[in-house]
Amino acid sequence: MASIAHKILASHAGVQQVEPGQIVEARVDRCMINDITGPLTLNVLSELGSDIPNPDLLVVVLDHQSPAASVAAASEHTRLRRLRERGVEVHEVGEGVCHQVFIERGHAYPGALIVGADSHTCTYGALGAFATGIGSTEMAYVLVRGSLWFRVPENFKIVVEGHLPEGVLAKDLILHIIGEVGADGANYYAVEFHGETIRQLEVSDRMTLCNMGVEMGAKSAIVPPDEKTLRWLEGRGVPARPVTSDPETEWEKEAHFDVSKLEPQVACPHRVDNVRPVVEVEGVEIDQAFLGSCTNGRLEDLQQAARVLKGKRVKEGVRLVVSPASREVYMEALRTGVLRTIVEAGGVVVPPGCAACMGGHVGILAPGEVCISSSNRNFKGRMGSPKAEIYLASPLTVAASAVNGKITDPREYV
Length: 414
Known about the structure:
Layout: H1 4-13, E1 23-27, E2 30-34, H2 38-48, E3 58-61, H3 71-81, E4 89-91, H4 98-104, E5 113-116, E6 130-133, H5 136-145, E7 147-151, E8 154-161, H6 170-181, E9 189-194, H7 196-200, H8 203-211, E10 220-222, H9 227-235, E11 253-258, E12 265-267, E13 275-277, E14 288-292, H10 293-296, H11 299-309, E15 319-323, H12 327-335, H13 338-344, E16 348-349, E17 370-373, E18 389-392, H14 395-404
Parallel strand pairs: 2-3, 2-5, 3-4, 5-6, 8-9, 8-11, 9-10, 14-15, 14-17, 15-16, 17-18
Antiparallel strand pairs: 1-7, 12-13
């Protein structure tokens, strides 16, 4: 009996079933590169003397240093834009973070096998796809062959029950899970999220969960597709046939959580699994608050932050940097007044893209500075100086901390 991950790998490898540890070569449905990893892939293709025989497979998004922050970055953008001449779909500066744009454009769907030259490609598992990050050299192989070899992962079932309390979001849930499982607790596993809590979550929240699957080492992270998935896809004109795990699936690993009493969580420097309840770190003064990224830059995230910021001001001396995950998100937040609320509170809205998350563009931290961020990593040097500190938290906690000037439990604001 097979899991979703095993069913997808088997169907794309053209075999009846697969077993953990088995090596298979599987057909890829779609792949993605961005302006950081893409040029490296092109270098490999050039060394091989190869063109792109399968341009329909590829999606390119200019998002990491976007708009270009240097002559070098601008040159790489120009190089990637030229792929349009070969029939490749290229998304311009300002369209958004690669993972958000990829999903909005209908490239992820249940049963798909997707690879991306970015570790957070696992986000697409929120729609029932097997999606995983690969290296730039591997991506060159995919573009030439249309397939890639995989070692079939073991299965890890995570079951979450209970209703999330007021002030506690999906980001708090995944931080709590990572804190319990550990940064290497799911190494190369195919994680599947199950339970009452998961079924209650909207697609945007499921994206947050799957996005951070890689932060516990997972090869892929998948939410079984249900009616919410199908409605979301139908709204974007994407046909879908759900793939689900068999009831008798053998799980090599299981973990169970009850979130009915879960508190807002914070991942403290410099590890994503260094997680504590926000009440234990309240009072840490901050210099910057960042709201955005492929983890929590969606409309629902901006709306949550606006709940806190409405009628308030960001603390003097604190920078609130906000980057909507995509132009689509930006326009809707503009239409509904969410961005107005953020700007009136003193927030700085920057173009859709990765922004401060990876320290290559706006929002870079100076030595000694402290940032609370809705992004997915708090490694030393991730957002600028290796002498800065990064705390990860939900959009509610980020907004509340920006108002208070120090890490703050958001429940007093909602």
